[in-house]
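Q&A log
Question type: sequence-to-structure
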Amino acid sequence: MLPMNDCTRNGHVRVLIVDDAPMMRRAIREILYRKEGIEVVGTAANGREALEKIEQLQPDVVTLDIDMPVMNGITTVKNIMIRHRIPVVMISSLVEDGYFAFEALRLGVMDFIPKPSRVNGGSWEKDEELLTLRVRIASGMQVQRMRRVRRSKIRRPEGAVRGAPPSTAIVVGTTLAGPNSIMHMVSHLPKNFEGAIVALQEIHPRILRPFCQYFNEISPVEVVPLTEDTPFHSGKVYMGSTLAGVRVSNTQPDGGFLLRVGAPLDSPIDQLFSSVADQFGRRACGILLTGLGVDGTDGMRAIKEAGGLTLGQDHECCVYPNLVQHAVDNQVVDALLSNHGIAQRIVTWTRHLH
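Response status: OK
Response body:
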């Protein structure tokens, strides 16, 4: 069951739609209007108007475009997160532009999804399901726990790129709103970090590669998007989407490891965690961050039984505590730590095992 914000009234999620295109405002309203438990309380054509409407209408969730006159979506998100702390679902046609996806997720939006489209006269059906789900889930987001990630460019030293197979493996699992937590954790790693990290997050596959491109500018460790089978090397952070299956395999001719990317799975975090437990045993570390559902608990158990380390994000840092809490309830988490605390722990753990 999703936690609902205190401001959600009468079981209805009150939504403000913000987009400069009248046709798109009508389209999003049309999609949400038919859904039980969702009430569109108003629309706005730009960010400035949206901030005024938020004061008047007190919505539970805001759907927000990026490319708008007067005040664009990124500036609007900054204002919303400072002044109102309301969950935001970013809906944009600029999904291929890494800057906007990265900035929106860095600032703390719940998700960044493509605009609904009736290609070749088709229906809204697929986009309708995604948009409706995101709005419902956004209403349960503990926004007060969200913190923007500092955006300061980092120059990694020459020689930071490594090619050796890892002797330890760290796997991270999270769902919606997770990219922000991953950014916080990774930004606290040292430039000479010797471990190898694979992180699965719920992010639209079209956004993953451009998102990683901009993440690389602030990350002390190289960030690699997982969009196809990729060699697994130390000193890197590999980022995948929970909308695909990822597992660690040791079938490389040179004895190294391969990250295999396959079809979507019901429990992608469990598969990744279990595969690293099989391959690395006590040299495996599993980390669960903010998220919904129960995926990851079985994988954490596999790592723990293999003698590895299991960590969870402290509840006070989780905008959705369900994923971690389920693992805690099943007694498969060794310690709960802040984002900074997790980074410090894996640095110490990695150095100890090297």
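Response note: The first strand starts at residue 13 and ends at 18.
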